[in-house]
Amino acid sequence: MSNPTAAMLVIGDEILTGRTRDANMHYLAGELTGRGIRLCEARVVRDDHAAIVAAIRELSGAVDHLFTSGGIGPTHDDITADAVADAFGAAIDVREDARQILVEHYARTGLELNDARLRMARIPEGAALIDNPVSAAPGFTLRNVHVLAGVPAIFQAMVSSVLPTLTGGDPLLSQMIDVNRGEGEIAGPLKALAAQFPELEFGSYPYQRHGAHGTQLVVRGTDAGRLASAMVALSDLVKAP
Amino acid sequence: MSNPTAAMLVIGDEILTGRTRDANMHYLAGELTGRGIRLCEARVVRDDHAAIVAAIRELSGAVDHLFTSGGIGPTHDDITADAVADAFGAAIDVREDARQILVEHYARTGLELNDARLRMARIPEGAALIDNPVSAAPGFTLRNVHVLAGVPAIFQAMVSSVLPTLTGGDPLLSQMIDVNRGEGEIAGPLKALAAQFPELEFGSYPYQRHGAHGTQLVVRGTDAGRLASAMVALSDLVKAP
After folding, report:
1. B203 and B159: one domain?
2. Rounded to a whole number, what is the distance in Å from the CA of B38 to chain A's nearest CA?
3. Domain containing B32 — which CATH number?
């Protein structure tokens, strides 16, 4: 596959203690797939400086784009920006362009731009700001790392700001077919079919619906013609007694 | 913290393409927290042998317990058992005790125990089986790696089989308080309070409810007395004008 690759790093104790169920990974996965960018790995780490730095270094070196989620707010547990700066040895301080965005936002809302809120203008040297149309405080891109907020509505808005700027690949197409048999019934022929279409990926996902077992077969790939041929063959396969 | 530590490895293209929203991570996080086992990291990797082997080696070496989810069914994309065996240089083949479980299950259901289904009896040498009361095909524990199914109902049943066998720690307690102010307002005093209770963790999570901004403050720790003291101080703090 020559499609661009991506990884995601979710940062936050609230996910790993079970307080919050992460929603951003699933959202980003769908958005990237639609643009032909292949999400290769996702990780969740704690609000721990060393853990975040290590994950950023490793993942950003392994893929074309790393997206992070969480840890860029005004409180003491928001340590992502400093960790990203450290990961690349970049200086970090309150930056004038980011500060100006906050000044205007808080002037408009009548709230005080205090020291805590000013932390949200700490941006690593060399980073480009990512627009936040929801609550103003910007994300940023440093090298191939896109640093986004954790609140889902803001995360999604920032994804919409970033994605159009990235080079996509051939969209990853998928087609599926539901079969009212257990996956053990069709595993053998499915494996043989998958071998005939090495450029496609065949997934098999069991489900239970109204008490009956069934299997959803999913075929994924970037070549629409081959995908169509595979679906014809798959239909024949599951029709067989 | 001297509580036991854990990591989770979710295996499956369906999560990373956005087809399926993972539910097992959130479930396991809650169960582990309740037993005083600290989930330090979670990862999602593709159905790729090398990626699974590398993640198993790294994570199992870093924590007391590694839990995996997915990839132990009958189809060609179910490659977790072989990857776990490879990660530790263990031999793997159809094992008689696991085969017997499948023989009885398929005799009962009237379905054929074909070659594909028999793959679910491939268990690494030295592993202990994990009971699957839902669909029979067992999970297994090899060293400190607990290999569980990806289907949420089966995953949860297997977690129930495994967790009582593990040594827990002091339960991680948490208390929370909702404040109808933005987190930027309370970030300063919250940071000062957190410094007074270094053995506790203070989290701050913004929310929007009925159009109004608010913040949920969460305090976590294993010492009930200190937690109670912190909550008293926190109530005073958020009452202040």
Report:
1. no
2. 8
3. 3.40.980.10
